Amino acid sequence: MVEIKGIEKFAPKDFPGFVSATFFVGGCNFRCPFCHNADLVIRPDSLADFPMDYVLAFLDSRVGWLEGICITGGEPLLHADIDVLLQVIKDRDLLVKIDTNGTAPDLLNRLIAGRLVDHIAMDIKSTPEKYEKAAGVAVDMKTIRRCIDIILESGLPHTFRTTAVPGLVHKEDIAAIAELLKGARVFQLQQFYPEGALDAAYRKMEPYTPEIFFEMAAEAKMFFEDVRTEGVSP
Questions:
Q1: Separation of alpha carbons 130 and 134, rounded Å
Q2: Which bin fits 115, alpha (ψ -120 to 50), beta or left (φ > 0)?
Q3: Is 74 left (phi over 0), alpha (psi -120 to 50) or beta?
Q4: Are 106 and 128 a contacting pair, CB within 8 Å?
Q5: Looking at the whole model, is its pTM more than 0.85?
């Protein structure tokens, strides 16, 4: 079964609208320079696993209180047997939210078909032209687009998220990102935090000011029905 590297026992922001916890799994096929989960991404073996007995006991102890579990990483869909973990969660009548970078459309499709996921959040790194720079690796945009289409066609609640990283995402890029996400309802713009970034150069980078950040959010409202912001107070 998938190895769980971290548990946040109460994570109200991760699964909006539901009393939820978050499970972190290790490993990722991206190397986003601004990522702040370096251990999960490149050193997952350095982190201890939560024994499955502990995970099951945690879930059972929260029956009647927890409403959902968010599965994040790392990249959860790197694990072909993720469905086993999701079934364990669903067997306890809990909702499941999956966070993904959109590189495993076939597995995502299988999870949707198996009714093992209730909400999908996909990170959109930048415009197609800057995607590889933002992801830190070669990226097949056909795969990314296919994953977007699968999410939109599923009819499931969804959130597409972009981190406002200077040099990777500008206000002028919002329209191109919106074109990539044509038909999406919910878009979340997240503030970039330099602390602990994977690439040392990004640790020295200044985030956008609140004024510029909210100008970007206002631009997004021209294209999406529901625009949310994270990491900056109005």
A1: 6
A2: left
A3: left
A4: no
A5: yes
E-assigned strands of 132-183?
A: 158-164
3-state secondary structure of 163: strand
Token pair of 212 as six digits? 């510029």
Smallest CA-to-CA distance from 67 within 94, 97, 98 is with 94
Average pLDDT value for residue range 28-32: 97
Cβ–Cβ < 8 Å for 28, 78: yes
d(CA 163, CA 207): 10
Give the span between the Cα atoms of 98 and 120, in whole angstroms: 5
Segments making up each domain of the chain, as ranges: 4-230
Q: Which fold does the domain 4-230 belong to in CATH? A: TIM Barrel (3.20.20)
Residue in the structure block whose two tokens are 């007995």: 53
Looking at per-residue pLDDT, the higher value among 220 and 36 belongs to 220
CA distance 87 to 44: 23
